[in-house]
């Protein structure tokens, strides 16, 4: 249920996600006789008269589908099929997409694009875990865009001793790209990239090829995208950027994710919730191999833009009075959590995240009356458009994964970002110049006296234009019950720091000295010019007195 975007839902006895997240009761999926799959869908249609019950009965067939896939040798051609689906024709044509998941990965990843055929032909994906296995499943979507995942099938994978196998796949990917099939090329490159024994040269070459195929696809004005193609491309780009040691290449990959998200919105075919969740997770963990490694600010800027564009896509496609959570608040593996809500008005919001060490961090946002008034329904979300609802999000970063480290400071709190979006378009609303937009409270995790007497506690915000932490329009109000409190006149990312005041004093002294020097450089030439003119006038007067009158 969490994979499908319903973290608070539970599976009922029929295998459906039920609860407040989905709005489905516990009996969902049962036929008129109260049984789960005891009758075929044809029998169910014969029994059920009510149209709603027919729809519920009809969906049972997907859970009965079985994936047929035997063990295979990595990088060699593999055949798989989905069988025993008892689905009436009016629900077709069905689309099938093959997914796989390793025991050391949190989410499944797409192996193929979506297709109408129930037979899959692909090159064997290598295993990355010690068991040498992968769990395969199939995402099946009917003509009403209702999608479900089949049960998982564990498959044993044998190593390929042919050293040229990966080179062959790389070459095959190039042929697919030349033929205009960028998605098959991306699928092959993803298979090559999964190997844990790749050299850095091969990784960078594969990443460059992957980027070239994606850019070529994005540059085609007539290129349409299916949901399966979008999910595959998002996965390949976001998953394997962490293997790059080339900063410029990483920046270009994040730019491609941003452009792909914008293109999907332009085509009115946004990625599904599962794809967005997986992509956001990959973006937020792209530094997990070496979190201390220096990352160029341009790379972080591109990653942050890609991340925020995915939030924009989410905001544009949310239903009224719904909430979407990226990351799990109760799972210590997720150290960044985002909650996006669409409501008729702005409401206070909070997030609590349990970390790996067992401690919890909290971020709370109390919305000011002035801000509530601006976004009170109906409000101007576009020059000629009134909106009856508003979308807002709160993200809690336990680590500064998408923000550069601030030199000569100690960060005392996690980073909290609060944003407001217009519904249907997802455009982020810029708020600034207010006296008190929001009150932010964030758990204190650092030493309140870090740095000593020369340091002061300040609440700073992330200035996207200047690409630096700034204090303008943000004020620290003190500590309360283990939390640091700030109020701000605008919306962005916030955190509380201990900043070195001696550096600021040095900067002020330097500024004063520079101003005095500038004044001297300006005044001295003026004084010299004036003095020269006085001297010339004096010489002229003296010479006039020395000339005899009869010579004039």
Automatic annotation (TrEMBL):
<keyword id="KW-1133">Transmembrane helix</keyword>
<dbReference type="GO" id="GO:0016020">
    <property type="term" value="C:membrane"/>
</dbReference>
<feature type="transmembrane region" description="Helical">
    <location>
        <begin position="505"/>
        <end position="530"/>
    </location>
</feature>
<dbReference type="InterPro" id="IPR000203">
    <property type="entry name" value="GPS"/>
</dbReference>
<dbReference type="Pfam" id="PF01825">
    <property type="entry name" value="GPS"/>
</dbReference>
<keyword id="KW-0812">Transmembrane</keyword>
<dbReference type="InterPro" id="IPR046338">
    <property type="entry name" value="GAIN_dom_sf"/>
</dbReference>
<keyword id="KW-0472">Membrane</keyword>
<protein>
    <submittedName>
        <fullName>Uncharacterized protein</fullName>
    </submittedName>
</protein>
